[in-house]
Design brief:
Elements lengths: L20 H23 L9 H8 L4 H22 L10 H11 L2 H14 L4 E8 L2 E8 L10 E7 L2 H8 L3 H12 L2 H12 L1
Antiparallel strand pairs: 1-2, 1-3
The structure holds manganese (II) ion (MN).
């Protein structure tokens, strides 16, 4: 099954000025698109050819060599699909009550969650992702390196921020902390997190 680049869930200028149309043009239109076409090229004629994305990710998670390349591209496609859903025009602000209660139960307060998330994102050396995940019944902040994804670590992703340089360099240059803080405060799609949390209890 050939994968296609999922369209952005909003127009590419909808997150401006927190995330510019130019960033989305490159990040979605070039970087994300390249992972999709590379994945299609790599799985052609292999046992992964007709598998869905999550299956490919799980089956190649600890691979080396050619299979590792498949993992990297499959996980990057999944991570970016999830990242675009994690953002929303007019996002940010205070999460809806059920989400806020879970955040307060795990991190004490929303401000503490935000500060800890920014700190973790900044301390992720090199390329990677910062995540809010569900582990057991507790919310945790975690980071992954390069394409790695919490699904292969027994965690359920609830929200993410891309901390590869291509995610912020055009708008924030080297200021990763300011980027992540802005994304949490102004763009986070808490409705999406609420929906995932509700599903996890169902
Ligand atoms: Mn990216």
């Amino acid at each position: 099954m050939a994968f296609t680049l999922k369209p952005l869930p909003y127009p590419k200028d909808a997150l401006d000025p927190m995330m510019s149309a130019r960033t989305l043009e490159f990040h979605h239109g070039k970087h994300h698109a390249a992972y999709v076409s590379k994945l299609n090229e790599l799985i052609k004629g292999t046992k992964h050819e007709n598998a869905d994305l999550e299956t490919i990710i799980r089956e190649t998670a600890n691979a080396t060599g050619a299979e590792k390349k498949i993992f990297n591209n499959a996980a990057q496609v999944w991570n970016h699909d999830f990242y675009w859903e994690s953002l929303a025009p007019n996002g940010g602000g205070t999460p809806p009550e059920p989400v806020l209660k879970r955040i307060e139960a795990s991190f004490g307060s929303f401000d503490n969650f935000r500060d800890k998330f920014v700190e973790a994102a900044v301390n992720q050396f090199g390329s990677g992702w910062a995540w809010l995940v569900l582990k057991g019944d507790k919310l945790e902040i975690t980071t992954t390196h390069d394409a790695d994804n919490p699904l292969t670590h027994g965690e359920r992703p609830l929200w993410t921020c891309d901390v590869w340089e291509h995610a912020y360099y055009l708008d924030y240059q080297n200021e990763r902390a300011r980027f992540v803080k802005t994304v949490i405060e102004r763009l986070a799609n808490w409705q999406f997190v609420g929906k995932l949390l509700a599903e996890s209890q169902g």
